[in-house]
Amino acid sequence: MVISQILKTDTRRILTDPFMIFMSIAPWVTAIITKAGWLYMNKHYPDITLDPLITSLAVALLTPMNIGIVLGFQLLEEKEQGVFRAISVTPLNNDYYLFYRFAITVVIGSIMTYFVHEILGLISLPLVFLLPVILVATCQIPLQSLMIASFARNTLEGFAVMKGTGFTLLVPLLVAYFFSDYSISWLAGIFPFFWLIKAYQFAINDQIGLFIASLSVGISYTLLLCWILFRYYRTNALK
C-alpha cells in the first residue's frame, strides 16, 4: 500500500514537471542517438577510432546518475513542503520512507541501466559480470540524490549542487580515457565512480580477482558515503 502510493505520487510529479520528464527519458534517447551515430561513423568514417568503453560508461552506466538527480529533486521538493516533518510523527518514519524511495529507484535504475547498456551493444559482457557492475552503478542513485537533497535548500540551489557534483563523474571518465595505463590514475579513487570504471575495465579484460576487488571497494566506499550523507540529512537538512 505504502509503496504503491509512493509510486503514484512520484509518477504524477514526474509527468507534470518538464525537467523530470527530460531526465527520465534522457538515457533512452541518448542511447538510441549514440547507437545510431556509432553505426553511422563506422560505416562512413571507418578510419576514425572510437572508444566503446568510454562511450558505454558515459551513456549506460551514467543512467543511475540521472535517476539519482530526479529522486534528489523529489526529496528536495518534499523537504520544502514539509513532508518529512509530517512523516516523522507517523508509524512510517523518515528512515523507512527514505529506504522505500531508495529501494524503488534502485530497482528501476537497475532495469533501465541494463536495457540502455544492451541498446548500445558496444560491449558484450556475460551477466555474471554485467549485473554486479550494474549493482555498483545503482548505488550512485542514493548518493546523488542525497547530495542534492542534503546540501540544497531550494530548487535553485539544487541545480547548483547538481552542476557542482558533475566533476565527480567527469574526472574519473577523463582519467580512464587519458591516464588508465598510469599508476597515477589510482588517485582518482577518491571519486566513487572511479571504482565502477575499474570494475568495468577488469570485467572486459576477464581479470576476475581485480574485478571482484574493484566491486568490493566501489560498493563499500559508495555505501559509506551514503551513510555519512544520510546522517547529515537526518540531523541537519530536515530541521
Automatic annotation (TrEMBL):
The keyword Membrane applies. Keywords: Membrane, Transmembrane, Transmembrane helix. The chain crosses the membrane at residues 21-41, 53-76, 97-116, 122-143, 155-178, 210-230. The keyword Secreted does not apply. This is Fluoroquinolone transporter permease.
